[in-house]
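Give me structure tokens for this 77-residue protein.
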Amino acid sequence: MLASEKIFKMNHILYKELEYDLLNSTSRIYCFLDLFNISLGHDRWCTDGVHMVPVWHDSIISMFWQTYCNSIYLNAF
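Here you go.
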């Protein structure tokens, strides 16, 4: 499977999980990460001024899911 096919498949799976919050105007999910500011001072994470190393991507997706899951948990009460 090509990388683009894997990305398409992952995006499809993620959309199924996030669909309600993406389409529901009353959703209380307010997760917009400022990827520029959180990358400042971490030049070692950037390979060429545009592309980032895998640890950066791992950190970003981890923060996203932590924020998303915490929001769901907090809204349950």
